[in-house]
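hey all, quick one before standup. I had two proteins in the batch that finished overnight and I want to keep them in one place so we stop losing track of which output belongs to which input. First protein below, input sequence then structure tokens straight from the run.
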Amino acid sequence: MGICTRVREELTHAQDAVSAMTASQTIDELECYWKEFLHALERVWSKAQSSHKGNVHWDGWKGAYVTERKQNQMLAYLRHARNAEEHTIADITEKTPGSVTIQAGPTGSAVVRSFTVSRNGTVEFQGLGSIETTFSPGRVELLDVVDRNGATYPPPSGSILDVARAGLHYYADFVDAMERRFS
């Protein structure tokens, strides 16, 4: 098995976790796949380190990536969120369940005989008057993470999926560059 093959396998695990996040049916699933993603992403880095141990050119080449992982807000957050998940009991996400609000519509009153919401979100109402419905989807929000030294890392802007996709893109580029340089 080639030096970069194990690294590529971990990148595939991270890609699979992002795909699973996208297809998640519940906020619990989304949170679970987020944590899997964080672990796989950090394994990309550690497998790259391990697979190039003893290579005299590796330390100089990886230096720019080491610096970027420390200084880039998103990359630092991903690393420290994984560490907090692995080594502490602190929450790294906050789940907000979805909800449906139903109230009287323009007529000012409603008598509901039946109310049905289909899987595709279509609302069927039978009764007198009118209703208005408001859907609030469930969310998983990223929380600040605190490292063992007390440093706080705020989450990057964007949804959890935006952050996962951006992190995946960065590490895919890293693996591609590593393969070009060391294969």
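OK second protein, same deal, sequence then tokens:
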Amino acid sequence: MESADNDFNLSDARIIPGTYLEETIKILDVEVKRLYIPGCVNDKSQILKFIPYWSWGNRGDGDVQVWCKKL
């Protein structure tokens, strides 16, 4: 999960496991899958966006989080 896709403090996010959506996007002209996983940020429902680990940091400065707690 990268702050370029998510407008909240990444460490506050929790996922709801079991379901997700995906879309194909381009990062550095490479097609990758971005996952949309339902979750919660500070007790508010939120869709969390995840990209492949190798691609973080290639879209500007920002935070990244590899692991996310579940509800």
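Flagging for whoever picks this up: The longest strand covers residues 30-41. The chain has one domain: 10-70.
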